[in-house]
Amino acid sequence: MTASDVTGKHIVITGGASGIGAETVTLLAQRKANVFFGDRNQKDGLALADSLKEKGLSASFFVVDVTDVESVSAFYKQATKTFGKIDVGLNNAGVDHDPARMLDVPDEDYHRNIAVNLTGVWLCMKQLLAHMVENNNGHIINLASIAGTSGAPMISAYSAAKHGVIGLTKSVAIEYARSNIRVNAVCPSFVQTPMVDHVMSGLNDRQRASLVNANPMKRLGKPEEIASAIAWLCSDESSFMTGHSVVLDGGLTA
Ligand SMILES: NC(=O)c1ccc[n+]([C@@H]2O[C@H](COP(=O)([O-])OP(=O)(O)OC[C@H]3O[C@@H](n4cnc5c(N)ncnc54)[C@H](O)[C@@H]3O)[C@@H](O)[C@H]2O)c1
Questions:
Q1: Cα distances (Å, whole numbers) of residue 251 to 66, 146, 220, 247
Q2: Which sign does the torsion angle of CA 224, 246, 90, 114 carry?
Q3: Interacting residues of 218 by C-beta distance below 8 A, sequence separation 6+
Q4: Sheet holding 181-188: strands in order across?
Q5: How many angstroms separate the CA atoms of 64 and 73, rounded?
Q6: Distance separating alpha carbons of residues 118 and 224, to the nearest angstrom
Q7: N or C: which end of the chain has fewer CB within 10 A?
Q8: Which atom of ligand 1 lies closest to the CA of 191?
Q9: CA–CA gap between residue 57 and residue 163 (Å, rounded)
Q10: How many angstroms does the Cα of residue 1 sit away from the middle of ligand 1?
């Protein structure tokens, strides 16, 4: 079986220091893409970039806070300086909040989820679109979630932000299809990453077991399973897909 070909593509990723982002940075670099990735976590970002470079792979790290318009602008400026042309932008940076019914979710958690998970994607998409319109070419991939396609009790603020990401993905895909720019989303269910470790740590054994057993496959997703799907999206094999989502959920929403 041959892997999706991303050789030589210039791919810019946010939230690349951990979890799905780090796995995707690694896989794309292994498949000979040129990866420029950012995160607000400088320590882990630099450590990942160094470990990839030691293996002779191409990946550069730059600190970014996706909620800060100036930081986002500096990030894409540096990416463009490094690459010249950006082929694919993956908007992956995200946060969650402690599981609770709405009345028990602090407003602060709501604002943080909207700022990172929705406004962050908006700001990054604007930078990417401006660049891609000039080149009359490009592909934007947004990390949404199945919490963005159906109700997600106990994580309402996260779910609201992810529904917003799906709305942006669909609307902007239609707006820019004639400019040869595609916009798609990826919607995983629970995947074994530090984000989900955090959610799990707030649950008791029975709740943890029922979360896993609710999935028809009776397991969580693996970061590499999400990264593989993203690699396919990054390749030209996905060329007729725009305005839609790849759902990776073990059959949970089937
Ligand atoms: N893990 C899951 O079960 C799951 C399921 C569906 C969707 N997702 C989405 O996938 C994406 C990656 O999640 P993950 O599970 O790998 O989480 P993670 O916590 O392991 O990684 C998220 C990364 O985003 C970075 N980040 C957070 N806020 C940032 C900011 N303001 N600016 C720049 N970087 C920032 C973090 O530092 C971290 O490195 C998120 O958008 C998440 O919502 C995850």
A1: 31, 11, 11, 9
A2: negative
A3: 212
A4: 59-63, 34-39, 10-14, 88-91, 138-143, 181-188, 245-248
A5: 9
A6: 24
A7: N
A8: 3
A9: 35
A10: 30
Cβ–ligand 1 distance for 92 under 6 Å, the answer yes
Distance from the CA of 195 to the center of ligand 1, in angstroms? 7
Residue 8 has which token pair?
């030589």
The number of the ligand 1 atom at minimal distance from the alpha carbon of 186 is 7
pLDDT tens, 5-48?
999 999 999 999 999 999 999 999 999 999 999 999 999 999 99
Whether the CB of 194 sits within 6 Å of ligand 1: yes
CA nearest ligand 1 atom 34, residue: 39
Strand residues in the chain grouped as ranges (E): 10-14, 34-39, 59-63, 88-91, 138-143, 181-188, 245-248
Q: Tell me the pTM.
A: 0.98
Q: Is the dihedral of CA 157, 17, 144, 152 positive or negative?
A: negative
To 10 degrees, the CA torsion angle through 73, 79, 84, 85? -80
Is the CB of 154 within 6 Å of ligand 1? no
Which amino acid, one-letter code, is at 89?
A: G
> What does the alpha-carbon distance between residue 238 and residue 127 come to, in Å, rounded to a whole number?
23
The continuous run of DSSP H or E covering 227 comes out as helix 223-234
Ligand 1, atom 25: closest residue by C-alpha: 15
Q: What is the DSSP letter of 32?
A: T
Active-site annotation, residues? 158
**What confidence tens digit (pLDDT) does each residue in 185-216 have?**
999 999 999 999 988 888 889 999 999 999 99
Which structural domains are found in the chain, ordered by start? 10-247 (3.40.50.720)
